[in-house]
């Protein structure tokens, strides 16, 4: 399906029923990386797997910036009336998730990110070098994006007021101390460093991710039920 936001067309696939879960992929990927996770979620959740701008089947653009990508997803949520959705973002999708949660309070109810970074310094030098080499050969704007952005400040992270799960692999391309810093700056966040996993080994077409995030997003359902019970008791 397609939806127009911010003057472009975003492609997405909707499956399942229940509380909305939005899945946002990484750089140079598309919604298809979540094929396994989507099948595992669809019996309990309504899953929206989105192609970011200039990725997959979504519109091509001349320039690519994380700010625009984040605003696309925020507009996507608004237009489909998905306020209170859970968002899982991998790599670039995690960056987008952090931006949305900090800049659009109330739009999400829960956030899960994995392999995200706040700036270029958060990426291990060897991976930065590889990205520079690939960009020098291809001049692909997706790789240029990773070399120039993002630039998320600690003050922005401190504004995130929803339950947040921060994930990374022990062999991730993101520095471990950088991931720990992200978790430290988000009030009340939960950090999990996954032993033996790389940047994408537990995410892309993987059965592992569901078991990792399910307890966290299930807690959201429990919180909703508890809130309803408390509200009912208070009104009696």
Please characterize this protein's 3D structure:
This protein is α/β, with parallel strands linked by helices and 236 residues long. The chain has one domain (2-235): Rossmann fold (3-Layer(aba) Sandwich), CATH 3.40.50. It is 41% helix and 23% strand. The chain is built from 8 helices and 8 strands. Strands 1-2-4-3-5-6-7-8 form an 8-stranded mixed beta sheet, with helices on both faces. Helix 7 (176-185) links the parallel strand 7 and strand 8 (190-198). The N and C termini lie far apart (45 Å). Residues 221-236 have low confidence and may be disordered.
Strand segment count:
8
CATH topology: Rossmann fold
Decide which structural class fits the backbone. alpha/beta
Radius of gyration equals: 17 Å
Summarize the amount of helix as a percent range.
40-55%
Helix/strand order: EEEHEHEHEHHHEHEH
> Any guess at the CATH architecture?
3-Layer(aba) Sandwich
CATH class: Alpha Beta
Main beta-sheet annotation: 8 strands, mixed
Tell me the β content. 15-25%
| Terminus-to-terminus distance | 45 Å
CATH superfamily label: Alpha/Beta hydrolase fold, catalytic domain
**Mean pLDDT value:** 93
The strands making up the biggest β-sheet line up spatially as 1-2-4-3-5-6-7-8
Which stretches are poorly predicted, pLDDT < 50 over at least 5 residues? 221-236
Tally the helices: what do you get?
8
